[in-house]
């Protein structure tokens, strides 16, 4: 991604990442070499997509992906899943996600739950390093792009990850129409 001139392999920056993300990179077994997962240092005040795009340029909107945590409920049981969609779309929570989770009701997980269970920070949740029992639902459009700019687990910094690497994460499932 040409917006960043300081991109370097994330495995060289493990001390800048949250513990779950650093551990996932140490144990990487993805479809691309871990050295292709890059880290860029960014201002924490620009962690949100709109601020990032305003600062680094509109072309990042098409290359950025968001990871949100969704809670599905059925018969008193709650299950969590991560959903990864391009930043210019939104997650089809009440359609694709609810059906995939077999839930009667689905909604964005409470922030305290999502952050507490994932070990990540608000504005930096990433599909890399999430709990092993969470499905990682990836919109097909994310899987198809050469590189996606995603969170790094904290508000400071972003990861640049090949779309096929996101699709190959543990627990990942590529879904058409997840992002609408």
UniProtKB/TrEMBL annotation:
Name of a matching Pfam family: tRNA_edit
Entry-linked CDD domains: PA2301 (cd04939)
All residue ranges annotated as the YbaK/aminoacyl-tRNA synthetase-associated domain in the record: 44-164
Gene3D superfamilies the record matches: YbaK/aminoacyl-tRNA synthetase-associated domain (3.90.960.10)
Domain of life: Bacteria
InterPro entries recorded: YbaK/aa-tRNA-synt-asso_dom_sf, YbaK/aa-tRNA-synth-assoc-dom
SUPFAM superfamilies: YbaK/ProRS associated domain (SSF55826)
GO terms, molecular function: aminoacyl-tRNA deacylase activity
PANTHER family xref list: CYTOPLASMIC PROTEIN
Protein's UniProt name: YbaK/aminoacyl-tRNA synthetase-associated domain-containing protein
Provenance organism: Streptomyces sparsogenes DSM 40356
């Amino acid at each position: 991604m040409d917006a960043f001139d300081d991109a370097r392999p994330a495995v060289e920056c493990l001390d800048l990442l949250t513990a779950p993300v650093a551990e996932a990179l140490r144990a990487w077994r993805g479809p691309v070499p871990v050295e292709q997962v890059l880290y860029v240092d960014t201002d924490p005040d620009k962690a949100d997509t709109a601020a990032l795009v305003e600062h680094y340029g509109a072309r990042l909107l098409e290359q950025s992906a968001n990871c949100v945590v969704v809670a599905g409920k059925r018969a008193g049981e709650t299950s969590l899943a991560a959903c990864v969609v391009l930043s210019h779309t939104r997650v089809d929570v009440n359609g694709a996600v609810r059906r995939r989770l077999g839930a009667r009701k689905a909604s964005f997980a409470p922030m305290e739950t999502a952050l507490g269970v994932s070990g990540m920070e608000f504005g930096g949740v990433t599909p890399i390093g999430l709990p092993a029992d969470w499905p990682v639902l990836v919109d097909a459009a994310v899987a198809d792009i050469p590189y996606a700019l995603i969170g790094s687990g904290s508000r400071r910094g972003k990861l640049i990850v090949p779309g096929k690497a996101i699709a190959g994460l543990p627990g990942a499932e590529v879904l058409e129409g997840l992002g609408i």
